[in-house]
Design goal:
Elements: E1 4-13, E2 16-26, E3 31-35, H1 42-50, E4 57-62, E5 65-66, E6 77-80, H2 92-102, H3 107-121, H4 136-148, E7 154-158, H5 166-183, E8 186-191, H6 194-200, E9 203-208, E10 211-216, H7 218-223, H8 228-233, E11 240-247, E12 250-253, E13 256-258, E14 266-272, E15 277-279, E16 292-301, E17 305-312, E18 315-322, E19 333-339, E20 345-348
Parallel strand pairs: 3-8, 3-9, 6-7, 7-8
Antiparallel strand pairs: 1-2, 1-4, 4-5, 9-10, 11-12, 11-14, 12-13, 14-20, 15-19, 16-17, 16-19, 17-18
């Protein structure tokens, strides 16, 4: 295994930079997730690392080798695609071993590596079947097995779970983490699903419009988003944003007035996560801001929690509250709420 470094990596189509001069240093054995909306440049970045797309400029370093101009087969990487890319006429055994056979590996070594991957992925009983006889989750395991047997320095995953149903996606996330911990290989993983990104990543790289908006640990990015794009992209429901201004330590905007806020004076955007909005009485006076009154527009019960749509003037805030509070709340009635003061975020405008 090896680390990976991108230096000023750029891909330009015509006058448009799809990937705009990004720098990224990924440590050996790290699970790094590139996340962002469609068209943000994450898949193009991954395909440049793989050698499937030629960079306009910049360098790709794997371990201590500059692989920018090398063919994909010479980069010591293995890639798992969104559509599995299995050969339908070959058995599972032959699909997994295809790359090894193409490299003229010894038959005993091939058998040993296939057996190891099959055991790791629990597909031993599938080895003599064809891909058409497998479920989506089983096909994905086979695609991962084909990558594992190559023993690459870096694994690349391009939205590998997007074709699976919700339950299977969650199960496969756990399997991927288990595999990566067992193998200790460097992983670069692309997804547009921020929940999947948060669950898998050692380090999260949030991209938009071809640039890196923020990188860091998932919880760090969730708690301290660098800007309003990251704030609203990471988290579900998204962070509430309210434009206003701070004057002499008091925030005013969107029907809210909050005293003693920790923010620089001037125009700002207030950010607050839905789970940091509480009914009055749920926080101590020291923890809470001053109360505000809101119309409870819609209540969405989710079992242990509920999502509330709160109306303040013409603005809607989303709150996530413990279900025990539902007995005191009703749609189309007003109630008082507070913010968790320590969780407020202020973005300069």
């Amino acid at each position: 295994m090896a680390g990976l470094r991108l230096e000023q990596l750029t891909k330009r189509y015509g006058s448009k930079d799809v990937v705009a001069s990004i720098d990224l240093d990924i440590e050996e054995g790290q699970f790094t997730v590139l996340v962002g909306p469609s068209g943000c440049g994450k898949t193009t970045s991954l395909r440049m690392i793989a050698g499937l797309v030629e960079p306009t400029s910049g360098r790709i370093i794997i371990g201590d080798r500059d692989v920018t101009d090398l063919e994909p087969k010479d980069r010591d990487i293995a890639m798992v695609f969104q559509n599995y890319a299995l050969y339908p006429h070959l058995s599972v055994r032959d699909n997994i071993s295809f790359g090894l056979r193409a490299r003229k590996k010894d038959k005993a070594e091939i058998a040993e590596r296939v057996a190891y991957a099959a055991d790791l992925l629990n597909v031993e009983e599938l080895l003599d079947r064809k891909p058409g006889e497998l479920s989506g989750g089983q096909q994905q395991r086979v695609a991962i097995g084909r990558a594992i047997v190559r023993e690459p320095s870096v694994f690349l995953f391009d939205e590998p779970l997007s074709n699976l149903d919700a339950k299977l996606r969650v199960e496969m996330r756990t399997e991927l983490l288990r595999l990566q911990r067992a193998l200790g290989t460097t992983v670069v993983y692309v997804t547009h699903d921020q929940e999947e990104a948060m669950a898998l990543a050692d380090e999260l790289v949030v991209m938009n419009a071809g640039t890196i908006q923020q990188r860091g640990g998932p919880q760090e990015i969730y708690d301290h988003p660098a800007n309003t794009f990251v704030a609203t992209f990471i988290g579900s429901p998204a962070m509430n944003l309210v434009d206003g201004s701070v004057d002499d330590g008091t925030y005013s905007g969107g029907g809210l007035r909050l005293a003693d806020v920790d923010a620089v004076a001037g125009p700002v955007t207030l950010g607050v996560r839905p789970e940091h909005i509480h009914p009055v009485g749920d926080l101590t006076d020291e923890e809470a801001t001053e109360p505000f009154t809101a119309l409870v527009d819609v209540i969405e019960p989710l079992g242990a929690t509920a999502v509330l749509s709160l109306r303040i003037d013409d603005r809607t805030l989303r709150a996530v509250v413990d279900s025990r509070w539902l007995t005191g709340l009703a749609e189309e009635t007003t109630s008082e709420f507070v913010f968790d003061r320590s969780r407020l975020r202020f973005f300069p405008r």
